[in-house]
Structures are given as structure tokens and as C-alpha cells.
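Wed. Picked up where I left off yesterday with Amidohydrolase. The coffee machine is broken again, so keeping this brief.
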Amino acid sequence: MKILDAVKQQHAALTNLRRDIHAHPELAFDEHRTAALVADRLEAAGIETHRGIGRTGVVGVIRAGTSKRAIGLRADMDALPMQERNTFPHHSKHPGRMHACGHDGHTAMLLGAAEHLARHPDFDGTVVFIFQPAEEGDGGGREMVEDGLFERFPMDAVFGLHNWPGLPAGSFAVHAGPVMASADRFDIEVLGHGAHAAMPHLGVDPVVAGSALVQALQTIVTRTLDPLDPAVLSVTQFHAGEAYNVIPDRARITGTVRAFSTEVQSQIEAAMQRICQGIGAAYNVNVRFNYIRGYPATINTPAEAALCAEVAGALVGEGAVRTDLKPSMGAEDFAYFLHEKPGCYVWLGNGPGEGGCTLHNPNYDFNDAVIPTGVSYWVGLVDRLLTA
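Structure written out below (C-alpha cells, as returned):
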């Protein structure tokens, strides 16, 4: 299989579509324009269309033949709350909002695949096109699952794709197992007793206790976990005090935890709780600890990963499909889909991440040259899984 000629002919139109979405970014659960654009195009292609799944999500369904086999293909639609620095004509028209992760490209490629398959339904089964809202931290995938996605649209497996700066444009990376980490966060409040900075003996200093706490937390990954279990614990905020000559009465510490298994998540949470209690006793402060579970780890099922690698290899050549890359400590709420169904989430090379063209960077832009590759990959996956 190579890049489909029919897809090549749609390259310019899909590029224009992608750039239109880029110019009009919408944040989590506010993707009304984008969702309407997607739904209108699906309906125009004669595809059964369902709006408002998981609040602002859209689902399209194509049935062909008589087989009961069904697969889901997913793209995310939301942008990030950040200011774009690009000056090209399709830059964001909305200050403080930007497609800095390529969801505009993901949406355009899946729409292109849906429209192609509607014109050429040469398969036997059902394809469910999932256009998901709110991937960037608000759990749109979870919302769609809770809204009955898999009950309303039964499918045997589900597949996702994300562009990946740093990988050669048009190449793929496929992981047989963990591909993205979980994303938890924590809030710690250290309560002491305020005093004049020149009379510290009259107070209980939460800054000193908080500093000791930050240092102690760094021992969890290095001294509590198995060295072969990857994890990250990062303190990202430390807020205390308002004046040079006042010992404050409280300090606030926050951060994030990343791991690839629920067991490691639980180990870290328990260790953090112990350290907070110990620091509280040692420094005579009251430590309030709150651990919030976020996105779970995104873990591909091996059989589906092998199929995706096979399809990608047939498309771009086996040498352009990496199966040896390390997973990312970034997170992805496609994980909620993979908790319900077998499936695989692949990376599509976006080209060198030079000049700031990396994910969540204000100079990022999706590489339009890879659109035909992404569309052809989706079509090839359908052909591989739903052809008798």
C-alpha cells in the first residue's frame, strides 16, 4: 500500500481545512464551531452523524457489507489556552487560544479518511469516527465513555494517532505496551504560625518545613520505587509569604506525578502521605495533603500494536516504522478508551522540532505535508481489519 491517489488529490483541500481549524481554535468543551464543521462535513458525505456525545463530541458511522466487525478511529479537536507567536496567514484569530498540539491536523486527517471511505466503502463491517473534545486536561475521552460511547456504538477495538515532532515527517512510532504516562497532581498546604522575621522563635516557619518537604519528596522515585519502574515526581509551585520581614503562616506546594501503572501511582501516593506526616511531626506544622488522580496511563494492546505497525510499514516502508522508541511521560486521555477496549495509539512523525515547532510551543504548527500519510494510514487500517 502507498499513499492513495484519491487522497493526494484531496491534499490541498484538507490543508485548507486544517488551516481553517487552526485559525479558529476552541478550548475544552467549547469546540462548537469545530464540532459543527466536522458534523456538517460528515453529513454532507452521507455519513450517519451524532452530535453532542460527551458534551461537544461528534461521532460518525459508516456501515458496509454484512460483517458485525467494528472499529473506532479517534481524533481530538480542542486547542490550548496559550498565545500563538506565529505570523503566517492561518495563525490563531483568537488571542490566548492556539492549536499548539496538532489537534487541527488530527481532525482534518480523520475527516479526510471518513470522506474517502464514504466514497469508497470497500470493506465489510462498521467504522466509527470519534471526534473527541477536551483532550488537553479536561477529560473529554472520559466524558464520551460516560456518555455511553461504547454502548451506543459497539466496536471491537479503538485506534488513535498523534503527530510527533522530532520523528521524520511521515514516519511512524508504534509501542506494544505503554506509550503515554498517567498524569496525577497534588496539592500540599503546610500550616505553621506567622511571626516577625526578626523573632522566628515566636512562630512556626512553614517555609523551612516546606523546603524540607520538597527535598524529601525527591527521594520517592530514587529510593522507594523499583529502578526499573519509570516515574516522575515534579514539584512545580511553592508559594509562601508576602513581605520581607514576615514569616508567613502557611505555604502551598503543588506538582505532578507521572507513571505507567496504577501500582506505581499508588506507591507514590502512599509514600507522599508518609513524608507529609513525618515532616509535619518533625517541624511541628500541620500538613494537608491532597492527591488527585488524573489521566491513567495509555497502554496499547500488543496484538493491535502489531497490526498498526504492519499497516504503517505497508504504507511508508518498514524502515520508517519505529517500534523501539521509549514511551513519553506526557499524558493522553485516549487512555480512557483503552481501558474499555483493545487498541493502539501511534505517533506520526511531524518532522524536526526546530524553531520551536514542538508540542505546546507558541511557534508550533502542524506539518501539512503529512496529511496524506495520516489519511492513508486510517484507510489502510480499515482495509486491514475490515476486509474479508
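Quick read: The chain is about 35% helix and 25% strand.
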